[in-house]
Amino acid sequence: MPENTASRRLDQPRLGRTRFEVDPDWFARLSEKVARFMGTGRFLAIQTVIVIIWIALNLTAVSLRWDPYPFILLNLAFSTQAAYAAPLILLAQNRQDDRDRISLDEDRKRAERTKADTEYLARELAALRIAIGEVATRDYLRGELEKLAVKLEDRPVRLRVSRPADE
Prior knowledge:
By secondary structure, the protein is mainly alpha-helical. Helices cover 67% and strands 0% of the residues. Helix 1 (26-38) crosses helix 3.
């Protein structure tokens, strides 16, 4: 008897049957690590030592000559390394460009928020200055009191002496 097609959709994959899951970004991360390592002095030193040993063994050890003088096998190894190194470096650069683009977008959004906050604070400060302009400030009151003190000093003082009504 055929399967019940009402419960099974043919346009969607079966769920729960995947045995092998792969992180889609693992190769990019690996290539980045390899490209970073290839750009270090340690890699160049290791490669230089290997090349010197390769050439020395092929020139001196008669019984071990697997790659005689023109060193065609060594040249092939370098060509293969270059053929893989260039795409790995480009892939690492593309990932770095993606990270830079995301960082730039975040910086742009942060700058827009900062600008909006600054404009808001400038408007609030202007409103406060206008409101304070209508309020008597300490300096204004001090000036008015000083003017009043000067006027009082210039005016002659008249003392009224009250006399008792009995006299």
